[in-house]
Amino acid sequence: xxxxxxxxxxxxxxxxxxxxxxxxxxxxxxxxxxxxxxxxxxxxxxxxxxxxxxxxxxxxxxxxxxxxxxxxxxxxxxxxxxxxxxxxxxxxxxxxxxxxxxxxxxxxxxxxxxxxxxxxxxxxxxxxxxxxxxxxxxxxxxxxxxxxxxxxxxxxxxxxxxxxxxxxxxxxxxxxxxxxxxxxxxxxxxxxxxxxxxxxxxxxxxxxxxxxxxxxxxxxxxxxxxxxxxxxxxxxxxxxxxxxxxxxxxxxxxxxxxxxxxxxxxxxxxxxxxxxxxxxxxxxxxxxxxxxxxxxxxxxxxxxxxxxxxxxxxxxxxxxxxxxxxxxxxxxxxxxxxxxxxxxxxxxxxxxxxxxxxxxxxxxxxxxxxxxxxxxxxxxxxxxxxxxxxxxxxxxxxxxxxxxxxxxxxxxxxxxxxx
Length: 419
Prior knowledge:
Helix content: 25-40%
Strand order of the largest sheet: 1-2-5-3-4
Number of domains: 3
Radius of gyration: 39 Å
Oligomer: single chain
Structural class: alpha+beta
Number of strands: 12
Largest sheet: 5 strands, mixed, barrel
Distance between the termini: 120 Å
């Protein structure tokens, strides 16, 4: 049997925990290891009179985590399947973190130790608890498909993205996304009558929906929000502008339909590199008119300017950021007789000097050119045997000097006859 925490069905990755087939470490291919916290204190021994922290971290379906207090002082370790308090009844989940690191997780999530959100741990899950849990989880796909039919019949502008049953099978949470406020009172009645369970409707954002369902991004890897990203920072088009990216919504948007979270990853590096660049709004005053900024290469330190001619045509000029800064300083001193073509020619000369030194002097295909000289002419010798070609060449070499002598004799005879 497969993992019940993440619905991964693979016998090779399931571990036997307390007589169950739950997954403790995730294994290869199992999504149980999503957003795991590495316990670097696991190999350390505590002092003799030290009382361990009595709050544990428990994970449920699709990486949903919560914290529960071990009031009964049960011996709980990472990977155990336990029954915890729910509203109402009880729920089943897997323990992902114990000990002192749970304090840091509570502080990170802004949860107080004495908060009412922290409920109790009832017991370690028995075989009967696990069987009821498995039966409840097997109903989720069918419940979701029927629920979507009810939504379409009632013409509600919402999307039912996921269904999660409670461990005792008495309650189900329906996760949905919607742009506007939705009146789903009639929908709840339909759910309660059809499925005979308690119903809880929970609205999530588009990013949270993608994190729950998972997927593969345009980079070819799993989505960051479903594997390791815990907080969703604000992403706007300004990050794309700083990185000189085209403002194409289809390329900048992720599977959730919002801007990709990875636009913020390299933003600090681009901001540091842009500090040395001159302002892009300033026009360069030259002897041929004003030059406007077009684009730049941040890490190569190059900037392109557009200069119009008197006839209306234009030309792109490539300059370094140091050259642009020098031109701006000269413009501040009312010096406008500047030729940007001279700056571009200096840049090309410096580029050729750097390329001509050392090994780069020779072309890459120099060996191919040398081999071409020694290759036989296939067109001339096509359809002839090599022995025949050799014999014909020898005959020509033998007869060639004799023919020359004959021709000379004939010319001398003609001269004598004329005389």
